[in-house]
Specification:
It comes from Sphingobacterium tenebrionis. This protein folds into 2 domains: about 375 residues, Amino acid/polyamine transporter I (Up-down Bundle); about 40 residues, no CATH class. It is mainly α and about 550 residues long. It is about 70% helix and about 0% strand.
């Protein structure tokens, strides 16, 4: 049974299946289109929404966290680029895992990618709703509050009102309280839901359903608009920057900066969504690697610049808002610019929603072609040349939770799934190098021999913790074993993995860059809360039940072996 669980597909087999399987997808995307799709995915809800909370927690130093996370993503992007040039088919990390680690890991990573694409789109839809409601209010149109937010926000605000009273509540809580008090009721229960988030998801799903060409045109237009407004914010905001707002640079220390890891990393996920369009590219082995690196570098520069401008225009304590870009211009009295930003932000966030809604069905399509999901998921529409059934299912999967759940819950959960996928892709490159599969790669991660460097880095890291981490070590000594297991187990895993990587690098001359990608992503994972990991593990267990109930029995590779 173990052999069947870890059976692998060869690169030649995957390419042959894609070529002769008749996917029916239209090959129309060039490198410019791919870069546009990448920017559309990356520059979305992160820069227009979650960047505010990250700045509030970490202060101006969050700009350096963006540099660090971008640095981590570069190593991952290089690994994705090598895979994309080797296995230029839809499926992203799912397909890559099938080649390197076998069917069980492929299923696990495919299931985890649902968190990256479908669940992250719930965040994007909710963020879109917030900007859309703000935009309408600017035009004097007010939607009833109970129709514009998740019920959790209103219930929390009502509880806070009972505890501290109206005078001590922040304005954002007062708005949520208004939703609770004005909502219609059934059997005494308030009816509260985020209707704009559900509607925009349905509309974008329809656009993705009718064709990649239409999606490409819409994405290109929206990317031009969103990059234009971001440049306008940067160039216009420079004149309102007060250097004293950058002091202190890290008011809450390293802990405050790192508390924004989930929000900042969420701002960068999406560059890998480019790889899901491999079968719709004119020249995937050349264009996919280029597009990933280009869009990542462009977005990193934009993020760092806009974070410095935002924290320079207003004090970081003022940025705990849902629409930080519009808020800062309103704060400095430039209401006209704030209105323009609100309108264009709606368009910009729509493009991110479009790309993620484009990516998820193509992963399900690939899993279905391998027999791990029902045949309906791989059905291609005869007219629109898109995975029709998978697209419709994705619409329901995103729209319904977006109506009812809070955004911050999804942000952290999305990051867990994405870190997991990124680590497996980096490990996959190490396996490809060791097994010789990399010889078929048209793009390869630049090779730097990590034979000694990884181990030396491990020893240096231990010394630095011993030398400068006295307070942290003392804190660990005050913690019980249960508390360490719940909140610090991933830190222990990080150091154990680094030790194992040091030994393996010495033995097998591992390439340094993928190893760095593994370690940085694992370190960032360790900064996420234990509750996110518990939910993620439950999610994986549900996925395993589905695999053994259906995929294990219907696996195309398993049938071929028989």
């Amino acid at each position: 049974m173990a052999n069947r669980l870890f059976r692998k597909k060869s690169v030649d087999q995957i390419l042959s299946d894609a070529e002769h399987g008749g996917s029916g997808l239209a090959k129309i995307l060039g490198v410019r289109d791919l870069v546009s799709l990448g920017i559309a995915a990356i520059v979305g809800a992160g820069i227009f929404s979650t960047i505010g909370l990250a700045s509030y927690n970490g202060g101006p130093a969050v700009s350096m966290l963006f540099v660090f996370v971008a640095f981590a993503c570069v190593f991952t992007a290089l690994s994705y680029a090598q895979f994309a040039s080797t296995v230029p088919v839809s499926g992203s990390a799912y397909t890559y895992a099938y080649v390197t680690f076998g069917e069980l890991f492929a299923w696990i990573i495919g299931w985890a990618l649902v968190l990256e694409y479908a669940v992250s789109n719930m965040v994007v839809a909710i963020s879109w709703s917030q900007y859309f409601v703000s935009m309408l209010e600017g035009f004097g149109i007010n939607i009833p509050r109970w129709m514009t937010m998740a019920p959790g926000y209103a219930l929390d605000a009502h509880q806070k009102f009972l505890e501290v009273g109206l005078d001590k509540m922040e304005n954002i809580d007062k708005i949520a309280l208004q939703a609770y008090e004005t909502a219609p009721r059934i059997a005494g229960m308030p009816i509260i839901l985020d209707i704009p988030a559900g509607i925009i998801t349905v509309l974008v799903t329809w656009l993705v359903y009718i064709g990649i060409k239409e999606s490409r045109k819409a994405s290109n237009i929206m990317v031009i608009i969103k990059v234009g407004i971001i440049l306008a914010v940067i160039l216009g905001g420079i004149f309102f920057v007060k250097p004293e707002n950058w002091m202190p640079f890290a008011p809450n220390g390293l802990g405050g900066v790192m508390s924004g890891v989930a929000a900042v990393f969420f701002a960068f996920i999406g560059f890998d969504s480019i790889s899901t369009t491999a079968e719709e590219c004119k020249n995937p082995q050349r264009d996919l690697p280029r597009a990933m690196i280009y869009c990542l570098l462009i977005c990193a520069v934009l993020y760092v610049a806009i974070t410095l401008v935002l924290t320079g225009m207003v004090n970081y304590k003022e940025l705990n808002v849902k629409d930080p870009l519009a808020y800062v211009f309103s704060y400095v009295g430039f209401d006209h610019m704030a209105g323009i930003i609100s309108v264009t932000s709606v368009i910009a966030i729509t493009s991110a929603l479009l790309v993620f809604q484009l990516a998820q069905p193509r992963i399900w399509m690939t899993m279905s072609r391998d027999g791990l999901l029902g045949k309906s998921f791989s059905k291609i529409h005869p007219k629109y040349k898109t995975p029709s059934f998978a697209t419709i299912v994705t619409g329901f999967v995103v729209a319904i939770p977006a109506l009812f759940f809070k955004m911050d819950f999804f942000v952290d959960l999305t990051s867990v799934g994405t870190f997991f996928a990124f680590i497996l892709v980096c490990c996959g490159v190490l396996y490809m190098d060791h097994s010789g599969i990399s010889k078929k790669s048209k793009f390869r991660v630049p090779y730097v021999n990590g034979k000694y460097i990884v181990g030396i880095g491990f020893l240096v890291g231990l010394f630095l913790v011993y030398r400068y981490g006295g307070e942290t070590l003392d804190h660990w000594l005050t913690m019980g074993s249960t508390e360490i297991l719940l909140h610090k187990s991933l830190v222990i895993v990080f150091w154990l993995v680094w030790a194992v990587m040091s030994v393996l690098s010495y033995k097998y001359n591992f390439s340094l860059l993928p190893v760095i990608g593994v370690l940085i992503n694992l370190y960032l994972m360790s900064e996420l809360g234990a509750s996110n990991w518990i939910i993620f593990i439950i999610w994986l267990l549900i996925g395993l039940v589905i695999y053994f109930a259906y995929g294990y029995k219907h696996s195309k590779l398993g049938k071929e072996e028989k």
